[in-house]
Write a structure and sequence with these properties.
Length: 485
């Protein structure tokens, strides 16, 4: 969906619908003031009577507004002006887009960006893309209808284009996660990633079963053993920086379906496990955006792709695995599989010369217990590096919160028969012990682990986005790449 920039007046613009914004406790300004004047003070009267709210993400639709060419005027609340930021811009535009996409429309024009910064414009346009697309990929009767044409009133062409690129990358991530596991499995995911690489000019490698065995990826291969679908590792590279410049590594967990293995999940816990590859899908979306934006940095992305299934060949409790870096791992729970996959992928990232690493994974229910459904956990071996990642998330309005990596948690993953085991002692601190396990495979490389188990997939819709895959942290990691040294 390409965004068209327009310079026409809001009241004169021919469209099925236009979108204007209102700040809380403030008179209509910009396009909203123009609509109010054209309609003889209608907006002011409706605000006074509390028929229209400027509360953040509230959307009211007005029909056949006098002296306005568009058939519908959607008024979206922007919240307090002093608190308006990128997150508010993303959510407000997403809320307006989602509301209007409830019906098929040919042309929608946005007149919300009066006085916005370039960064807010970029976020707003990204929000439009997210609001205009849902999870109803296979419904005969759709609930969300992207408009045929989207227009944006403003002259910041660079910000508009960047918002479109990041919005499309976010939706790529969402589609990969939302598609059913019969369609997205290790080989098909790898093929999709190869298509992205070809279209965007990324360098790409796909490691098949033979290559993974030759590379001694014993932890990843053990998880994959129970499935009839062979595993893959995808490696994408963007060489936008100078030769010899430091390389940023992005690592994604790609368990395309997680039954739990022999530690079988109950039905309710398995129902949404197509989303267990959200980390890998996020990484692919980020690489598409980085390549299309032409960022002058060197970035490598690595995705470990497996199905965790049950068969006579499934790996077992008590098995001892040898990971790629030589560490031995005693298996205490086959549903703690993501960390086994990431162990070998992180080893490859280190060997490929990563200067710093960020991994994303729907890794633990314990992180959801600790932080809820909207906040990701952030764990690290390098506080300065994690601070940069968190700062990028903060400016984008995507919520992360640090969890402590105290040394005493190391004791909880020690095994009596191998170097380490794949779970800690009991239920407590499970997100941290999982991160401590991953830390064993990054050496001294600065590393940040983002546990996205909560925010990656929504069972209920938000005002600004449909339920299903969220695409969260695409924007954050693009921001990390922009600030890369």
């Amino acid at each position: 969906m390409e965004i068209q920039l327009i310079e026409s007046a809001a009241d004169k613009t021919e469209a099925d619908a236009i979108v204007i914004g209102l700040y809380q406790d403030a008179a209509p300004s910009g396009a909203a003031a123009a609509i109010d004047n054209a309609a003889g003070g209608l907006l002011a009267k409706l605000i006074e009577r509390k028929e229209i709210s400027a509360k953040r993400n509230d959307v009211q639709t007005l029909f056949a507004v006098p002296n306005v060419a568009a058939g519908v005027v959607a008024v979206v609340g922007l919240g307090p002006k002093e608190k308006f930021d990128r997150r508010a811009a993303f959510e407000a535009c997403g809320a307006a887009a989602k509301k209007l996409a409830g019906k098929a429309r040919k042309r929608v024009a946005y007149f919300v960006a009066d006085g916005w910064t370039s960064e807010q414009t970029e976020a707003g346009i990204c929000g439009v893309h997210v609001g205009d697309e849902g999870q109803d990929l296979f419904r005969a009767e759709k609930r969300i209808f992207p408009p045929g044409e989207v227009c944006w009133a403003g002259t910041d062409r660079v910000a508009a284009w960047q918002g479109q690129v990041i919005g499309e990358a976010t939706n790529l991530t969402r589609r990969l996660v939302n598609e059913p596991p019969q369609d997205i499995y290790p080989e098909s995911f790898a093929n999709r990633a190869a298509d992205v690489a070809y279209e965007c000019g990324l360098q790409g490698e796909i490691w098949d079963l033979d290559r993974l065995e030759a590379e001694r990826c014993g932890a990843l291969l053990a998880v994959a053993r129970g499935s009839s679908r062979p595993p893959r590792m995808v490696i994408l590279r963007h060489d936008g920086g100078s030769r010899g410049a430091p390389t940023l590594a992005l690592v994604g967990k790609g368990v395309t379906f997680d039954s739990g293995g022999l530690s079988l999940k109950p039905t309710d816990g398995m129902l949404t496990m197509k989303c267990d590859m959200a980390g890998a899908a996020t990484v692919v979306g980020v690489m598409q955006a980085i390549a299309r934006l032409g960022l002058p940095v060197n970035v490598i992305a690595l995705c470990g792709l497996v199905e965790n299934m049950v068969s006579g060949r499934s790996y077992k409790l008590g098995d001892v695995l040898t990971a790629r870096n030589g560490k031995t791992i005693e298996v205490h729970n086959t549903d703690a599989e993501g960390r086994l996959v990431l162990a070998d992928v992180l080893s490859v990232a280190v060997d490929r010369g990563a200067a710093s690493i960020v991994d994303l994974a729907t890794l633990t229910g314990a992180c959801v217990v600790a932080l809820g459904l909207d906040v990701a956990g952030l764990m690290t071996n390098d506080e300065a590096w994690a601070g940069r990642v968190r700062a990028a998330a903060d400016v984008c309005g995507e919520m992360v919160w640090p969890l402590p990596m105290f040394e005493h948690f190391n004791e909880q993953i020690k095994s009596e028969v191998a170097d380490i085991k794949n779970v800690g002692e009991g239920r407590w601190g499970g997100a941290i012990t999982a991160a401590k396990f991953l830390e064993e495979f990054v050496g001294t490389t600065p590393w940040a682990h983002i546990d996205i188990a909560g925010p990656a997939f929504r069972e209920k819709p938000k005002p600004f986005a449909d339920a299903g895959a969220s695409g969260q942290f695409v924007r954050t990691l693009v921001e990390v790449a922009r600030g890369w040294k």
